[in-house]
User: What shape does this take?
Amino acid sequence: MKNGNAHLVRLSVSLALISVSIIAFQLVLIQILSIVQWYHFAYMVISVAMLGFGTAGTFISLFRKYLLNKIDLLLPWLMVITSLLMSVSVTISQTSLFSFDSYRLFADISHLWKLIATYMIFLLPFFFGALAIGLIFVKHVDKIGTFYFANMLGSGIGGVIAVGAMWWFFPEKLPAVAAIIALFAGLIIFPKQLRSVFFIIVVAAVTGLSYFYISPPSLNVSEYKSISKILNLPETKIIKRESSPYGTIEIVSTPYLRYAPGLSIKYPGMVSVNNAAFNNGDWLGPLISSKRDSLKYITYSTEMIPYIISKRNDVLVLSSGTGRQVNIALLNNTENVIAVEPNKSLLNLLSGDFSNEVDSIYNNPSVQIRNISARTFLKSSRSKFDVITLPIIGAFGGTSGMFALQEQYLLTKEAFGEMWSGLTGEGVISITTWIDYPYRNPLKLIASFAEVLEQNNKNPIEHIAAIKNWNTITFAIKRTPFNGKEIKVIREFCNKMNFDPFILPGIKADEREKYNKLQDKSLYTMIDKILASPEEREKLYSEYPFNIKPAVDDKPYFSQFLQWKSISQLSEFFGNQFVPFFEVGYVLLYLTFILIVIFALILIILPLVKLGWKGGKKSWALIYFSGLGTGYMFIEIIFIQQFTLYFGNVIYSAAAVVSLMLISSGFGSLVSQKLQAKPNRIIRIISFIVIALIIYTVFLPSLLKTTIVFTLPVKIIITALLIAPSAFFMGMPFPLGLRMLSLKNEIQVPWAWGINGVFSVISTVLATIIAIELGFVWVMIFAAIAYGLSLSVNLKRS
Amino acid sequence: MNCLISLILGILVLAGTSYSQDDKYTSERETMVKQQIEYRGITNQPTLKAMTAVPRHKFVPSNLIDRAYDDSPLPIGYGQTISQPYIVAYMTAFINLKSGQKVLEIGTGSGYQAAVLSEIVKEVYTIEIITELNNSASKRLKDLGYKNVICKNADGYYGWKEFAPFDAIIVTAASEYIPPPLIKQLKDGGKMIIPVGSPFLNQTLILIEKEGEDITTTSLLPVRFVPFTRGN
Assistant: This one.
């Protein structure tokens, strides 16, 4: 008996360890794929790879008897294989045979096959790891509460470990670290009779993993990423690389990079050469030093508009990055600058090793740094500023919609409203955008400001000024109406620099085209319509092929413009092959969803060949477990969204929320082991969850808004109190359901587990689609509906 | 004897294949000019002639040779593309080049645009910052006999002062700003043209015109907006 208990404890520890390694590996893969491609591709590949759980469920359903007979021998081997696959999969995926490029996907068919191969490569470690977990659940379904607790606890801890490890290890080294944990998981349950094999595995694994740690795969970064392009230049090299949960920051030294967006064509001098910073291979900004150059060129830019109107004392630079806007403020003799930048790793570099490269701006006594997300700063700050500046919107030449799926809380109507409230009497919000084509960014931006101003009972025409160059427009939104003197100064500045007034009280049509002409003049008419009246604006929203309605906190996707209704119209104008490049992220989101649904259907239907199509209350299992999988993931996503803004740090709040939820659910599962698995009990638990969800939908945003100004420890306590109780109960229905199922239809247990896994993946992608198309509040509503469905099928049974 | 006959037959077959391949590409090129360029309204005869003459398939990577005459840009490595044929034709026609003129190109890439320009003007100066691209393009242009194209591996920011001023400048490797030295090297009355867009979506062209001290820019309609059915 004692031996039996010891075995179960070892098995629980092993299960927790394999769960730690799987979650850690998943997070590491997201980092790696974000470096070699872009975030949305990482998201897509991981979504498919996570179907490994569903595949394992189907596999166990089909071969249940055989697998359970050999379970003691299989489990350690499955975990060792998982470890091996974790360590080699990244290396294999980065070979020229499999390495794909998302940009070439729509231009070169071979990259489609490479993408499919990449899915398969990353699906395997998840499949084998999940197979081990699934077998433990199926074999010990009577103790599912305890084992599910180990699984949840391990997953929760895994998230924290992975985030912490990213400070210490570069992403390409981390698969080996995750693999070591998986190896331990296997080794501690290795049968004693196979001791000699055990030692061989230990030696081989230690040798292999040491090799992969010491010589990690070199990452095959897309040739279209900013960092690849710059590294093609002669004498250009990475001089510093630093890893953190925010991504990998690279400082590149080059004798050729000059960055001067919005530079006047009249500028007579030279543009200075700068080193630059990149995050996960994406452009972060230049490291500007006035020691190398007089920096006069910065004053020949459209971005000067807030400073030419009057002297500024207090400037707020939101998402200050490498400090370009801070530099502009200091060059204009600003007394106090608050620079808000969430990336701790970047700030450490720029105020430490690379301080001289940026004229020590982050150590300047006039500059105060706030290491927090810009939006959270806005929500919690009560200060007033003369100028509030934001980073330039979009990218030169367009982004191909790479940011379409990115939640941009700094560009929502609510955010602009908070900026407006944070202005002094003569204060100005200053924001620059690239002129894209077809016109999108300037239109959405001006629509956002028009709506915010009208909400504040102001006439937008009196409060907005904008000037344009050949490729940029800088907007200035002033708290009080622009006066005659200010308008004159702006006109004079435009004449001096070859800029054109774009929006100005009393502007004449020909002023807009004096130096920089647009062949497609619809930009002017559309801007005028947006500013004219709410009715004209609404009409334009409905007629324009792109979505130019302002982003709001509930749908914070400023860079999402593509609409299904306009795709045929765009194809007609631009040709089918070009349309995906308008918004690659958006197109891929739907492609991913379709792909996953097809996979999911196969995985759900396939076991029915063995289980039989009819009888056995399969519809109950299908609805119950799919509802739980969907509901749980939807709530997790909502919590991440809400608490990211609350804490002002995406990485830590996501890790904290997910871990807190998983661990609380794990304890719920542990307690459920003591409960009888009956429909009535499940109904009561799910009813509590649904009621909690309704309460969250109504009260959570306002509660968080009220308490956002509290100190960090208090906010942590509030978060724990909000998340833990509901997550505790959310951990119960799954193990109770499995136990209930095992009493009458034990054969269906792996199928049900697989359904839960498959729907967890589907719902992750579906939640993003719902958030983009309908808003986050609907994700919460659908979460309640999903749990409601799980509840309803039990009502029938009770 | 058998060996000799086989050898002769082999040579004949190879020669035949080579002939039919060339024939095939000439035919594809003519179709490209008719369907992708003329049909969309470009009537500038020097441009049409140049586009018909330059063997585009010799400027694309070997694995994409079958797609050389497709109506799309193609990757050439180093994050660069060979532009869609229509874009090349549109830019060339737009600056309305004359036979005795001198053109500067910033961003040689594959060398295709330089080859097209060289069929029209007297001298083409082209600068490429990426050494590998410069090496392959200059060799390709030399092998194909484009003697009036001069390549340089350098930073395009500074232009090419020794040969300035230029009647036209094409900046295919555009940056966020127009380098001041390039403005200075543009002849009075000259035109500079800059295509702006992501690698597979080159859409917008910026035209810079210099008249004495006056410099104006025009953001042209994206060329893909020209309806396919204009011919009708």
